[in-house]
Design goal:
This protein has about 230 residues and is mainly alpha-helical. The protein is built from ten helices and five strands. The strands form two sheets. A three-stranded antiparallel sheet has the order 3-5-4. A two-stranded antiparallel sheet has the order 1-2. Helix 3 crosses helix 5, helix 4 packs across helix 5 and helix 7 packs across helix 9. The radius of gyration is 25 Å and the shape is globular. It starts with a helix and ends in a 26-residue tail after the last helix.
């Protein structure tokens, strides 16, 4: 690259200042913040809070500290401290901006939720301001939940043979399904339909749903026990 001469000059003349800059960066780093080595490692160059925040933003179910520690490749105690810093950050502690969402510990794990005071405006947006039609994938997932409820996301994915994370988020956002309960052994959230679905379908109860067996070939794919 024609930089042999320039590189040599850069090392010889910048070593002292670079050492001082590194010491200053180290003194300003917060606990749990990795120091970038400049080697291009995107994961290690980012503060652990930012990586945890990114994971929690897309998580459909509460994430245990063990799971999070495995995901970011950091010690459990360090992840626990980072989570508590995120809670304080979102809550507006120490002068930070109080966010419209919060990081809450539920069912043995951590998950981001809309703050209770913003529920009305979010519900209004989802139900009236964003009335786009459901996709075919969402309709199929909704049908599985309607006929098999209560059912976990993993079980729905097994029946449909595809990942249903984003679709479940959509149905939750539309108020068509709800979190019925969390399995005490597996920690998996089980979903059920809401009264809003009955209103949308124009029926009084789930008993009025049409029989599904005539629509299935050999009654397979997880629906064998349904009439």
């Amino acid at each position: 690259m024609g930089a042999s001469d320039g590189s040599a000059r850069g090392v010889s003349t910048g070593s002292t200042s670079e050492t001082g800059a590194t010491e200053r960066r180290s003194s300003l780093s917060r606990p749990g913040d990795p120091v970038s080595t400049g080697d291009g490692g995107a994961g290690e160059a980012q503060p652990i809070e930012r990586r945890l925040e990114a994971i929690l933003m897309v998580a459909d179910e509460p994430q245990s500290l063990v799971h999070l520690a495995s995901a970011v490749g950091r010690p459990l105690v360090e992840v626990r401290e980072a989570i508590l810093r995120l809670v304080a950050d979102f809550d507006g502690v120490d002068g930070t901006v109080r966010r419209g969402f919060e990081l809450r510990e539920v069912a043995g794990g951590w998950r981001i939720y809309v703050r209770a005071e913003h529920d009305p405006v979010v519900a209004d947006f989802v139900l009236t301001q964003n009335p786009s039609r459901l996709s075919q994938a969402a309709l199929e997932t909704l049908a599985v939940i309607a006929y098999k409820q209560p059912i976990s996301r993993g079980a729905v994915a097994s029946i449909r043979a595809v990942n249903v994370d984003s679709v479940v988020r959509t149905l939750l956002g539309r108020g068509l399904i709800t979190e019925a309960f969390t399995d005490s052994e597996t920690g998996a959230i089980n979903y059920a339909t809401t009264d809003l679905l009955l209103v949308q379908l124009g029926i009084n109860s789930l008993d009025e749903l049409p029989l599904i067996s005539p629509l299935l070939a050999d009654g397979a794919n997880g629906f064998e026990d349904l009439p």
